[in-house]
């Protein structure tokens, strides 16, 4: 089955120079019918205007994935980790036993746009870890490319969970397909452009900001259908 959530259905927050779009219950947004999808607990998109920062917060036993779309995101936490993340960067933080962290935009003129995913790890109480990877447009063009994975030997930042995060840029008319194993599910999100998603249940057209939650489906096909330019999207295959 497939459930499509349009961009307009996401919860939107504005806090000064911070803009957020939430696909699941998060912070002050509480919806008992929209709290998680398998082990995916949160999927947020943020835009930080110049010199803006997120409030420092404490978390434990979460896998937090940051995927930068535009601009440069500065991440830091109380383990001493400090890193600058540019476009195409994927950064995976397993908070484990816990820690406080923040993200900020130190640029004086340019905004930063990024995705944040929260997942439930397979084991609790681990030591905090950080994993970084960076990818070009060419690597993701017209193919389903893993940018983070819990499968040993695969490319991408390491996930401490049996899941894969894919990033794809499809030219108009370009197609990719993905087989979904029994008991697995796929969360697909359109970053830019327009795509056509075909499953056992039918054909669905998605625009930027739309998501599709797909479960109990054997095969997914995605086609780029933007009138101009390419279409960018991510998909996470997870338990």
Automatic annotation (TrEMBL):
<dbReference type="InterPro" id="IPR012093">
    <property type="entry name" value="Pirin"/>
</dbReference>
<protein>
    <submittedName>
        <fullName>Cupin domain-containing protein</fullName>
    </submittedName>
</protein>
<dbReference type="Pfam" id="PF17954">
    <property type="entry name" value="Pirin_C_2"/>
</dbReference>
<dbReference type="InterPro" id="IPR014710">
    <property type="entry name" value="RmlC-like_jellyroll"/>
</dbReference>
<feature type="domain" description="Pirin N-terminal">
    <location>
        <begin position="17"/>
        <end position="119"/>
    </location>
</feature>
<feature type="domain" description="Quercetin 2,3-dioxygenase C-terminal cupin">
    <location>
        <begin position="147"/>
        <end position="238"/>
    </location>
</feature>
<dbReference type="Pfam" id="PF02678">
    <property type="entry name" value="Pirin"/>
</dbReference>
<dbReference type="InterPro" id="IPR041602">
    <property type="entry name" value="Quercetinase_C"/>
</dbReference>
<dbReference type="InterPro" id="IPR003829">
    <property type="entry name" value="Pirin_N_dom"/>
</dbReference>
<comment type="similarity">
    <text>Belongs to the pirin family.</text>
</comment>
<dbReference type="InterPro" id="IPR011051">
    <property type="entry name" value="RmlC_Cupin_sf"/>
</dbReference>
């Amino acid at each position: 089955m497939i459930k499509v959530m349009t961009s307009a259905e996401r919860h939107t927050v504005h806090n000064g120079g911070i803009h957020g779009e939430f696909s699941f219950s998060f912070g002050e947004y509480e919806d008992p019918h929209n709290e998680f999808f398998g082990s995916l607990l949160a999927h947020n998109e943020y835009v930080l205007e110049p010199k803006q920062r997120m409030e420092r917060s404490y978390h434990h036993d979460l896998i937090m994935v940051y995927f930068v779309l535009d601009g440069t995101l500065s991440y830091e936490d109380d383990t001493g980790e400090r890193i600058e993340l540019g476009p195409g960067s994927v950064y995976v933080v397993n908070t484990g036993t816990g820690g406080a962290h923040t993200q900020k935009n130190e640029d004086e003129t340019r905004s930063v746009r990024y995705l944040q995913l929260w997942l439930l790890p397979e084991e609790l109480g681990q030591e905090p870890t950080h994993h970084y990877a960076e990818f070009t447009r060419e690597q993701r063009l017209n193919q389903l490319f893993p940018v983070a994975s819990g499968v040993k030997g695969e490319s991408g930042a390491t996930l401490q969970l049996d899941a894969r995060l894919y990033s794809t840029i499809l030219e108009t008319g370009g197609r990719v397909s993905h087989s979904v194993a029994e008991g697995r599910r796929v969360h697909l999100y359109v970053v830019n452009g327009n795509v056509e998603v075909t499953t056992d249940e039918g054909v669905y057209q998605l625009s930027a900001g739309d998501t599709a939650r797909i479960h109990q489906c054997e095969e997914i096909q995605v086609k780029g259908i933007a009138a101009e330019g390419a279409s960018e999207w991510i998909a996470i295959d997870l338990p």
